[in-house]
Amino acid sequence: MILPIVAYGHPVLREVAQDITPDYPELEKLIANMWETMYGSSGVGLAAPQINRSIRLFVIDSQQIFENMEEDEKKDYPGETGVKQVFINAHIVGTDGDDWAYNEGCLSIPKVREDVYRPETVTIRYVDEKFQPREETFSGITARVIFHEYDHIDGKLFIDHLKPLKKRMLKSKLDDISKGKIRVDYKMTFPR
Predict the structure, then answer these.
(1) Where along this sequence does the record place binding of Fe cation (predicted)?
(2) Closest CA to 158 of 125, 186, 127, 117
């Protein structure tokens, strides 16, 4: 089932999400709905706060980025193929590498894209959908998607990484989003 995505300005997007236990109600169904919602809105990642659940859960599919990338672009990301993964109770263990810019967007902040600087690699501890503990290091675009979704479960948004002047320049667009004055081709819930 495709779920509505909460828009910028909704308070759940600013909450630090809580860890969950294996007996979280209908977790398997929730994860399936998150995949369907993410793909139905043409996203590459989706965090539970974006569907109005303040829990530490997100899904990513960075494989589709590489599948849709032009051949000449792929040379900038040697060896990367992306991952399709569920992250539960994720906590960043460390980061490494130089910060690099990439143009990011967000399903909760539609029609706004900006360059955001993030480290090259992230090491993250989490449990998968079977609650098996894992710790892995990701790099490049996959790390980027993980950082972006991880921000959501920590109550942050990609626009928080922008310089104050750039944020002020976006203020009217952000206000329009929070007031529901935007059209998208997926279901959204706007703040009241």
Answers:
(1) 106, 148, 152
(2) 117
Residue 10 marked ligand-binding = no
Report the number of distinct structural domains present in the chain.
1
Cα Rg for the chain, rounded, in angstroms? 16
pTM of this prediction? 0.96
Structural tokens at position 169? 């320049």
Q: Which of 1, 26, 27, 17 lies closest to 131, judged by CA?
A: 27
In the residue annotation, 149 being an active-site residue is answered as: yes
d(CA 14, CA 157): 8
Q: Which of 80, 104, 114, 149 is catalytic?
A: 149
Instruction: Confirm whether residue 161 is marked as ligand binding.
Output: no
> Which pLDDT score, from 0 to 100, does residue 78 have?
78
Distance (Å, whole) CA 31 – CA 145: 18
Of 12, 35, 18, 37, residue with least CA distance to 90: 18
Indicate which CATH number applies to the domain containing 155. Answer: 3.90.45.10
Full residue range of the structural domain in which residue 46 is found: 5-189
- Residue 184's SS3 state is coil
Instruction: Give the pLDDT score at 163.
Output: 95
CA angle 24, 26, 28 (to 5 degrees): 100
Tokens coding 63: 């494989």
Which stretches of the chain drop beneath a pLDDT of 70? none
φ, ψ at 139 (rounded to 5°): -135, 170
